[in-house]
Amino acid sequence: MNTVFPLDPHPGVLVVGAGVAGxxxxxxxxxxxxxVTLLDRGRGVGGRCATRRIEGQPVDHGVAFLHGSDPAFLDxxxxxxxxxxxxxxxxxxxxxxxxxxxxxxAPGERRVxxxxxxxxxxxxxxxxxxxxxxxxxxxxxxxxxxxRLDLAGGGTARARVVVLALATEETLAVVDGLPxxxxxxxxxRHLLRMVAASVPCLTVIAGYPPDAPAPAWDVAFxxxxxxxxxxxxxxxxxxxxxxxxxxxxxxxxxxxxHAGEPVEAWTQGLLSETARLYGEWAAHPAWTQVRHxxxxxxxxxxxxxxxxxxxxxxxxxxxxxxxxxxxxGGVEAAWTSGRLLAVRLxxxxxx
Amino acid sequence: MSExxxxxxxxxxxxxxxxxxxxGAKRLCVRPVSVAVLPTRFGDFHIMAFxxxxxxxxxxxxxxxxxxGREDVPIRMHSECLTGDALGSLRCDCRDQxxxxxxxxxxxxxxxxxxxxxxxxxxxxxxxxxxxxxxxxGLDTVEANRALGFRDDERxxxxxxxxxxxxGIGSVRVMTNNPDKMKQLQxxxxxxxxxxxxxxxxxxxxxxxxxxxxxxxxxxxDFSGRAHLPEQAEPVVVEGMPEP
Lengths: 351, 244
Prior knowledge:
CATH architecture of chain B: 3-Layer(aba) Sandwich
Largest interface: A-B, 22 and 21 residues
Order of helices and strands of chain A: EHEEEEHEEEHEEEEHHEEEEHHEEEH
Strand content of chain A: 25-35%
Number of helices of chain B: 8
CATH architecture of the largest domain in chain A: Alpha-Beta Complex
Strand order of the largest sheet of chain B: 1-2-3-5-4-6-7
Number of helices of chain A: 8
Structural class of chain B: alpha/beta
Oligomer: heterodimer
Strand content of chain B: 15-25%
Number of strands of chain B: 11
């Protein structure tokens, strides 16, 4: 068997998905002295906390800012070494539409962004952890008291404890591929079917020359648009931006309707709508990039109270975390679910 | 205006700016905001509505007679259950338990039903319906129910205790079949002077308790084969049943 790790089976926990939920879980397990390895198909950690560098300028094209009320989460968010923390960003809000996370501006909620880009947060969490990037899990099945993961390219990895910290739909696809199991597995499978309701988000990043009339707001939530969910004035987060950058995120319904069309078509749709709402200049960027978030976010109110743990033969254990596995949704919930899952897995490991 | 209502209005007035650092691990604070007469089919009450420092849930106290400054006041804690309380669901016994407590308190000269607005198991009605959906398929495992969330009892106790303090009730007798409820309230600083068993009269919907035994999982199975979960965090007792 072509195992990708020096130790087979892995002596601790394999975490699939190095987004905020997976990282929070892995970090907590590592603190408890449990060996942990993260696998992620991407080229960087963070999942939807995603930053691109465009001609050296960071651009957040997924999560635009972090927000929360749990003091432990806020401590973590504010303790990123070397990062320039923009406390209270965004402060200039245009429009009265609903934010992706309706609670983001509730009393008691704190907001934070980073001048270096939102990936500063997941990168801080990944520091010191064993993270295998560009490693895609294509299959999973039980093998005695172990889980066996098949990786793209033919490798395998085995461990007694596996954590899935992916979009709910992706986790469901993995769990649906497992052979029929006991009540606990079937209960978990059914529960995943009930909560798998992520919404897509078509995203356009548009760069304008410095003499463009930069908007006087940080984030716009248009109340009258059926096309745009929000527009983020990303370059407002950067100390000395070369480009004025807007990140346009499409509404869920519109994203579903247009996802099958050529990229140029929906890019034009989002640019035109932004121009209609905020000025003709927005229709003529110097450049654009796009991102199609297939599982962009979850609707609030869909969340469960905590992560799932499914036991199996010989102590084989499957843990499931993610933003729908804690109250409130969003990055804070992803972080909370990962930490809760680590506590529960550690309880099991130590009996 | 009755003397009792006058005293309750004084409390609302006096507490107008109340916001303490909260009680219990979750630091919950409630504040009486308004009080009015509430005649019901179970008797005449006053209803007092409370603000709280955590969420938009408006908890209420349903009060009989003059409870302010009184000792040994009978109280019942009832956790909101939309499906049972309002819709008459037969998946739980909440409606019977609520009616029995209102009827009992309504016949006393002094007492209170604290109606705690925390829906169902977990963080909302959606997850309660999900739990029922799993139950329908026989997939309501401990793990799935844990992810769906159990009732946050600790929160209910903190709210109830603070309500008792806000009302200036000196000591209480708790209407419950779960002695742990008394201890929980005591731990939060409430003076508990006794327990009143919460016994319901038998009717067509709870008669099965008299004729069947609890299943292995500890739940009673009704005549239609459905498990009744102890949503009010205590065993159901119907007249004619031995006390648990």
